[in-house]
Amino acid sequence: MRLQRLNLFFTIFLFFAAFHAHAQSVSTAKPWTLWWWMGSAVTPEDITHEMEQFAKAGLGGVNIIPIYGTKGYESQFLPFLSEKWLAAMEHTVREGKRLGLGVDMSNGTGWPFGGPNVTQEMAAQKWKYLDGKFVAEPTRQQVKRAAPGGVGLVLDPFQDQAMRKYLARFDSAFAKTTLRPRAMYNDSYEVYGANWTTDFLQEFEKRRGYDLQKVGSLLQDTAGTLPSTLVRIDYQQTLSELLLERYANPWTSWSREHGFLTRYQAHGSPGNLLDLYESADVPETESFGTSRFKIPGLRIDPDYEVDRFGTPHPLAMKFASSAAHFSGKKMVSSETATWLANHFKVSLSQVKPQVDELFTGGINHIFYHGTTYTPAQEAFPGWLFYASTNFGLRSHFWEHLPLLNRYIERCQTLLQNSQPHHDVLLYFPIQDLWAKPSASGIHLLEVHHVDRWLLQLPFGQLAEQLWQKGYAFDFASDAQLKRLQSTPAGQLSSGSTEYKTLLIPATTYLSESTLAELLRLARAGARIVFAGELPKYPMGYHQHAQRQAAFAEQLNALQAFKNVSTGADWQRVLSQQAPPETWAEQGLTFIRKKHQGTSLYFVANLADQFSEGWVSLAALPGAVEKYDPLTDQSTLLPSRRTGGREEVLLHLLPGQSCFLRPAKNQKLPPAPVAARQKYPLTGTWQLASTKGTSSLPATSLPQLTSWTTLSDSAGYFSGTARYTLRFDAPAQVLKSKTLTLDLGDVREVAHVRLNGKEVGTAWALPFQLALNGGTLQAKDNVLEIEVTNLSANHMRLVDRQNPGWKKFYDANIVDITYRPFDATRWEPMPSGLLGPVQLLH
């Protein structure tokens, strides 16, 4: 019997050893994707098929999000957390281990948290003030975009034990599983109207020292008197504390107890984002809509309504990354490319600048938004989630998506394996936001419209100034200041990250506990700079007049320290303590990090001011190498010493990005001198389709133009066409040591061969490719350029002939203005090689 047990044990051991030997390691450097399961009408076969394609394309993982279903598939719906749903989830995790794909999942369906196990007593509440008393009433909000098995009321985020009761459903479910996801995901807040909870009055009095019921009229006073403002701050401070203590922290604790990491989109919350983001293992921000970058040739969807939806902003992204930097978290994620443009109209060249902006904002774990599970038998365009960019198998750029994925992987490999190297810690006085009246009664700190809250505050205006002038900085909350220590060298240490200076923006209100922390740090030798007016009032309505004198006295004591600076010359003092990267004023954005003991810069040119110039790197003296993650090539930058400063010559065109780091290998090839001369390639181009829909006539083109103008049917063509040109090259071009092929305007991806040799694929702005020596010849060069366009033109025909593909419940499918999707009204989008094509030498 003992021998049998030993043999059984040995067999099991060999099984798991073999399993793990075949299991691939999961990469967080590769981009991941949100993966919507419509109605959770999934099968093991199609799950495997899609995941195999994801792995081949260079994705690193998926986040399962069950949402509303597809009409006609009702019999295949799997109720959320049912035995069949859990079996599908476990199959996904198992296949992920085999394929090297990570798996996360939402802690619910749709968003925000809620569902069938949320009773009326657990559901979100709001207050009314009737006859001098606060009265609670339900918001009646239902889970948005819920999946089968997930319909129900939204959870009260301020109620004690509500989160634990909500998660009990998952306790029961996961007790039946052996395979589990890597992380739980909490989507953006979006609990509309909730501003109260069952024991709010008791908690308020315990925390603030007085009975809110007795001063209820002040909470509704919008006249801006000091008493009413102080009550309003107290009220929002209490909500913020309850949200952290009863919602964010219990969720994270539960997840860790069950072996999960947490990804938390705290934005949209009525609390301090820095504390909420920091409560998670992986803080997650969101890039929604299209930034208005001034990159020449960058296409912006004219239908996108900026006034309605806002645009991404790096300062909003810095709330998530600052929380991670301060607490030493390795990864900061982002929901990426949400509503970047209308369905079927997004190009890879539009995605890259948004990703680069996220990188400079401190993000290093990209999640595409996203892909929709689609049964293999479904015809084009398959199943689509309404508010997304389609990164799925039926996307028009799926063939070329590995190019973007490899670029992101190279960037994130460096960004995830390095630490923040920021000089300035900028204090976030959230109480000044709470002091402002709000139409809804509370302030929701959203990422979409930072112009409506962040940029209206002195804090936001100062942060924007620091960003534009090239300071490396993070944000810090009141709670985080309590953890700061001053080092013997006068640095500020969070325990994970060090900063040179604490910068305090102009603020009207300040908590006495924060003032006490500033005094503690000043006594320890920390450098503190006040930018603008000093605080006037201590926070808190309770006994405010009695506390005012002591507050003023402590503020005066703080100013007496030599290492504390106040006054109009704060900019001069700050620049001496923490020198900025002056070249940022030319429109370059960056993040500075420490990698293997030295400084590392990621620099992106998302404007049109800079192309080449001598720059001085504040944290990187000596020889510098430029690493291009697009080409995976490193070069040595020319250097010089001017006015006591070391400078390097940086060539970075609008739309390009690079890493700058110490040159450990002095034998690297020198960076090419910027091409100055242009040699236009003229002649007659031969055009012929190679694959695609509809019909594209073969033709000769004396001038490059959109192929949609060639015939009526060409306006519906989506696919690939080959442009061929024969040309001679003059002697001055042949003699050039640095040759670049500039394709001009490409709609949307161009694969290039010259004289039968592969040159490369241009998919990002600027559409340029380096030519290797010996590729060009004096006579009869043959240039072949295969261009792939978007699927938008084909959808004009599909939507007319087969509108039945729009068969989804709930939101069904809408356009970027949230109106019913109708491609039949679209004009043909320019397609093909528009040029001009030229050699730069």
UniProtKB/TrEMBL annotation:
InterPro entries cross-referenced by the UniProt entry: Galactose-bd-like_sf, Ulvan_degrading_GH
UniProt keyword terms in alphabetical order: Signal
Signal peptide: 1-23
PANTHER family attached to this UniProt entry: DNA-BINDING PROTEIN (PUTATIVE SECRETED PROTEIN)-RELATED, SECRETED PROTEIN
Protein name: Glycoside hydrolase
Species, as recorded: Rhabdobacter roseus
Biological classification of the source: Bacteria, Pseudomonadati, Bacteroidota, Cytophagia, Cytophagales
